[in-house]
Design goal:
heterotrimer; A alpha/beta; B mainly alpha; C mainly alpha; A: alpha/beta; nine-stranded mixed sheet; three-stranded mixed sheet; elongated; B: mainly alpha; two-stranded antiparallel ribbon; 11 helices
Chain lengths: 371, 328, 287
């Protein structure tokens, strides 16, 4: 390239101007992730961005690829429920996703932009998966024993605490390696809620939250990270959503539920956790340790997060319409697709509440219709 | 009118024959000078803004926990919003320390070998290969670390832990990722930088010193010990410190192999954390929690100050030890 | 001991031991390189296929994982925009320092700050852009140009320092000759100084580009990530380092293989850029 004055000054000016423009920000872009990708003519945008929980990521990605053929690209990044709530609150994504319903302080922080709406999408199960060659499949474990495993008190797989629950099974003396989450995770919240219900020591010392001070073990990012940790370490035990256990062929434990039965994490057991729920008006709930006889004790719903008035929160109208299109799919045809990945569809009463919430979404005051 | 000479404002050099006259002919010169000055000022403003912004955003965390409280308390508790960064600071120093302890001797040995002992033809190849290590990005080292180094080292780490468990900080159950593995990867990553600078420093040793030692009957090694090492000691120390600075700031390779446990590990083979890794892992989640975000920025600031101190020290050493010729 | 006496066996042994140790050190220094390249090729080449380079990652949980096309394109876009931001600025600052600033205090301050910038960890640049531009939603949320800005901040000191070295190497005699012929200052810079320094400037810029292409941390929460192909600088974009970073932590073997294939691709891209950079200086040298 001929380095003459015109080229140099042009390059230089453009570089500086680029910085300048960037800093000023254009007024028509506004806040949020509205962009030039929206189609013209008042139709829905052709792509939306979401981020959050890895718990439902498999089924969200399946729904996204279904919707692609209908002209809507849903780009979903699994960054953990904590990340989902944070990005939703900052308005850098069009919708968030979390397995742990937002706490009161989190709702308060989000209210700067508008009223956050929780939309439960599916039920999933948190399995206790283990990688112990020579151990029987579907080991029986109860909440207290799992807590002891994650405390690091149980150091080998043939510990009396485990053999007591599994009489007649031969367990190897492999050392236990614990795998847990390093990021803020709704799956962690569900799992630690279960542990707190069955172990007073866990409840007082560690507690139940999206992130806790794990007494021992390796931290990994995302459900897939914990799955990788379990897969790569002999003697490992970790908690991952059912779909990840299926994807990697993990052996999963049978957990003792509230009624005293040992339940495998199956689609039916997951669905059973959703039966007979009382759900508050803002739909913030969890179904850990559900009372049903056949219910899996660590099964709960996961939520999509949107603002009640999406446009006031910063989305352009076409984007808001596209988000509604996505939500309509989630509570519509998506519910039939979910069981293929062992996610349980929502019970009818909850589904009706969801649809009501979606109908109540507005753009600058006027109700949104799916584009 | 713009000065024609190289020095500003001194019309000492020859002027063009027909350049007197209209003020317009000086305009492009003035415009260029002002333009470049403005650009430099803009960059300066950007950097100053950068530091101010970091300080500003971290003030919330520092005021709540105190500067020393934040940096030296052993309690990084995200769920309770209590932020004491000691495990991160210690983790950063341990991994970088291991990296320097392992990497610098090897780098200096390779530099000495390349400059003094190596046959000519091999020298270019050797230096090229070692420099090639710098072309591998951090994330690739991390990937390699997870799938090649950790599985290979797990039994090695366990046997080292068992054999040397009488030493402090050695022993325990090895899970795989650890301070040690992170330190090892950092050693590999700082090798090219430390080796390159060491080579430059060693090359500046005046030939007379070396020849004098050899003339006195010194063996090759004695010549190195008597003539080269004393002369280049400062420069090599500077190189080591630059390597340390680089190791302190390394993020991605470390976070992939260190285990990401925000606790103060008791053994070198325990999992740990580092300042850079915690920022990379948590800032997506901290977006909407002001105190968490401020704590991460404070961690970034502590990290930055650490690298500043180390690099400033390195510059002093390199400059004092290496006369004109080594420009770093 | 006279200067010509024989070397005692003990000294000879020490000499041989020391030489062996140094040689061993050099050999050990080569081991990681060999191992990294070996595994990159062993695990990365099987991932390479037509499909690998021409399809985007699907994000599918089961089934076809897809290739890395959007990551390659994303890296090219990010680095191109970052280069457009940092190279003119960096060369401009270097020009100022060499032609006008010289020993002045202001220039010294700039030099010092640029030096300081080289030591800033790349994650801090990403953090800075995140807090100043992304959270405040200036110009939208995550965007490729914000990632490029973080990369440009990283590249700026590298470009400035190498450009300064190269520009200083242009002999003053050339400048004086041009001035003696009546050329105004700006013409001297654009027609004499820059063209002579051009190969060195290209080398320095390409080396900065190679460095930026491999960076992950500044992109994590600025450019974020998408699976689909995009060249729009105002939107989120995929990139090779972020793709590798995410894929490395997945359990599925096919995705881990994809990570290796992407790593090999990235290293190859960086190597090619580095080689081209060095060839640029080889073509014409400054006396």
């Amino acid at each position: 390239m001929h380095m003459n004055r015109t080229n140099i000054t042009a390059l230089g000016v453009s570089g500086v101007v680029a910085l300048g423009l960037a800093a000023c920000g254009s007024s028509n872009n506004g806040t949020g992730s509205s962009s030039s990708a929206s189609s013209g003519g008042g139709g829905a945008a052709s792509s939306i961005n979401g981020a959050g929980a890895t718990f439902p990521q498999p089924v969200y990605q399946q729904w996204a690829s279904d919707l692609k053929s209908q002209g809507l690209t849903v780009n979903y990044q699994g960054i953990g429920s904590g990340g989902g709530i944070a990005q939703f609150t900052s308005g850098t994504v069009d919708f968030g996703a979390t397995d742990a319903a937002m706490k009161d302080e989190e709702v308060k922080a989000a209210e700067k932009k508008g009223t956050p709406v929780h939309i439960p999408s599916v039920f999933g199960a948190v399995t206790v998966s283990y990688n112990v060659p020579g151990a029987p499949k579907n080991l029986k474990l109860d909440g207290g024993t799992v807590a002891n495993l994650f405390f690091g008190n149980i150091k080998t797989w043939n510990d009396p605490a485990i053999t007591k629950l599994n009489p007649g099974s031969k367990l190897p003396s492999t050392k236990v390696t614990v795998c847990h989450r390093s990021d803020e995770s709704g799956t962690s919240k569900l799992f630690t809620t279960f542990l707190s219900d069955y172990s007073a020591e866990w409840k007082s010392k560690i507690g139940a939250d999206k992130t806790v001070k794990w007494p021992t073990g390796t931290g990994a990012s995302g459900n897939s990270g914990v799955a990788a940790c379990v897969k790569q370490n002999t003697g490992a035990v970790g908690y991952v959503e059912q779909a990840y256990a299926l994807q990697n062929g993990f052996t999963t434990a049978q957990l003792k539920n509230k009624s005293g039965n040992y339940i495998k994490p199956t689609l039916a057991a997951t669905a059973a956790a959703g039966v007979g729920l009382t759900v508050p008006a803002d739909l913030r709930f969890d179904s850990i340790n559900a009372p049903g006889a056949k219910a899996y004790p660590i099964a709960s719903a996961t939520f999509l997060l949107v603002y009640k008035d999406m446009c006031k929160a910063g989305l352009a109208k076409p984007k808001a319409q596209a988000v509604v299109k996505w939500l309509d799919y989630v509570v519509g045809p998506g519910q039939q697709v979910a069981p293929k990945l062992d996610y349980a569809p929502l019970p009818a009463s909850l589904l009706a509440k969801d649809k009501a919430k979606i109908a109540g979404l507005t753009c600058d005051g006027s109700p949104l219709k799916a584009g | 009118m713009e000065a024609g000479a190289l020095e500003e404002g001194r019309p000492s050099g020859p002027r063009g024959l027909a350049l007197r006259g209209s003020a317009l002919s000086g305009l492009p010169d003035r415009a260029l000078r002002l333009g470049l000055l403005a650009l430099a000022a803009l960059v300066l403003a950007l950097l100053v803004f950068f530091f101010i912004e970091l300080a500003n955003q971290s003030s919330l965390a520092f005021s709540r926990f105190g500067v020393f409280g934040f940096t030296f308390t052993n309690n990084w508790d995200v769920s309770r919003n209590i932020y004491g960064a000691l495990p991160l600071v210690v983790g950063t120093l341990i991994t970088a320390g291991v990296g320097v302890l392992i990497g610098v001797p090897i780098a200096v040995a390779s530099a000495l070998f390349a400059t003094e002992l190596c046959p000519r033809r091999l020298k270019t190849l050797l230096t090229l290969l070692i420099d090639l290590l710098a072309a591998v990005p951090s994330v690739v080292y991390g990937l390699w670390g997870i799938f090649v180094l950790i599985p290979f080292l797990k039994p090695v780490q366990q046997s080292l832990a068992d054999t040397f468990s009488f030493l402090p900080f050695v022993g325990g159950h090895v899970a795989g990722p650890s301070y040690f593995v992170a330190g090892l990867i950092l050693a590999i990553m700082i090798l090219p930088v430390v080796a390159a600078i060491s080579r430059e420093v060693i090359t500046t040793v005046p030939a007379e010193h070396k020849e004098a030692a050899l003339a006195l009957g010194a063996t090759r090694w004695e010549m190195i010990r008597m003539a080269i090492l004393p002369y280049s000691r400062a420069g090599i120390s500077g190189a080591a410190m630059l390597g340390l600075g680089r190791a302190i700031g390394e993020t991605i390779a470390v976070t992939l192999v260190v285990g990401n446990a925000p606790q103060l590990g008791k053994q070198i083979f325990d999992q740990g954390y580092s300042l850079a890794a915690v920022v990379a892992n948590e800032f997506g989640e901290a977006a909407s929690v002001p105190i968490h975000r401020s704590a991460l920025i404070a961690a970034g600031l502590v990290l930055f100050v650490l690298t500043l101190i180390v690099n400033a020290g390195a510059r002093l050493y390199v400059r004092s030890g290496a006369p004109e010729g080594v420009r770093r | 001991m006279s200067a010509l006496s024989a070397v005692s066996p003990r000294r000879r042994r020490t000499d041989q031991a020391a030489r062996a140790a140094l040689g061993a050190g050099a050999a050990i220094a080569l081991v990681p390189l060999v191992l990294v390249i070996f595994y990159l090729m062993k695990k990365g080449l099987p991932a390479w296929s037509w499909h690998f380079f021409t399809s985007d990652p699907t994000g599918s949980f089961l089934g076809d994982a897809g290739g890395i096309r959007s990551a390659i394109v994303g890296t090219l876009v990010l680095v191109a925009v970052a280069a457009a931001m940092s190279i003119p600025a960096g060369v401009g600052v270097a020009l100022y320092l060499v032609e006008y600033g010289k020993a002045k205090r202001f220039a010294g301050l700039i030099r010092y700050l640029v030096d300081v910038m080289t030591g800033v960890p790349s994650i801090v640049f990403g953090l800075f852009v995140y807090t100043v531009l992304v959270i405040t939603s200036i110009g939208g949320g995550f965007a490729a140009w914000k990632g490029s800005l973080a990369l440009a901040l990283l590249m700026l000191p590298v470009v400035t320092r190498s450009a300064e070295v190269v520009l200083n190497l242009v002999p003053d005699s050339l400048r004086e000759a041009a001035l003696a012929l009546g050329a105004p200052r700006w013409r001297v810079i654009f027609r004499v100084v820059l063209p002579s320094a051009l190969p060195g400037l290209v080398t320095g810029s390409l080396l900065a580009v190679a460095r930026a292409a491999g960076e992950t941390a500044p992109l994590l929460f600025t450019a974020f990530a998408v699976f689909g192909l995009s060249v729009d600088p105002s939107q989120e974009i995929n990139s090779l380092p972020v793709q590798i970073f995410n894929d490395a932590r997945q359990p599925r073997d096919v995705i881990v293989t994809r990570a290796w294939g992407a790593a090999l691709t990235l290293v190859l891209l960086i190597l090619i850029t580095t080689v081209v950079a060095r060839l640029a200086t080889r073509r014409s040298r400054i006396a």
